[in-house]
Amino acid sequence: MSEHHQFIFPRDFHLPPPDWPALQARLLEGGYVLAPQGENIPYSAIRGDSADADDASWHSPQYCLGPAARPYLSEQVRANYDADPRNFPLQLLAYDGPHPRVMVGENLCEPQVPGSDEPARPMASEAYVDLIGQAHENPAVQWHCERSGQYYRILELDWHYSLAMGFRMVRCEGLDRASAEGLASLIGELAGQVMGCSHRHL
Fold it and tell me: How many distinct structural domains can be found in the chain?
């Protein structure tokens, strides 16, 4: 059975990570998530789907998205949300080990330089996996584009919504890309850091 999750995460994970419990409080206070009681417990929590939290140093409960989050969703996802909000869980995950957490699936794509239609070259085919390994060891590592002379940190490249990496994650379900980007904008405002987002297909 396939699993699909969306992740929202600080793009610049070489910087000190934002305070995730403080973000949790802001999400609750703003009505962006609902206290997990009664009919506001997501189906995924009832099923026990929280494997990504097993090795987290801190994690929140699984929340249902709240009505204040609706404006950040695409029209299609908003209709599905209105039909049953329990299909839209959100969980905050913090990893405080020496290395960032990597969330990828079988949909991992070769990166491109932002604004380009060409793959990031001269990065050879499959060498992007090595770049992930290098960033896992050193989050501040940069890739040099010989064509432009510019340097890029790993999440400054365009991974086509397929790579999540860092020490802080928000895991969601049921979102399309537009909705994930909308929530990433919201969370970035609340947390005070630029957020990226991705989809993982297992």
Answer: 2
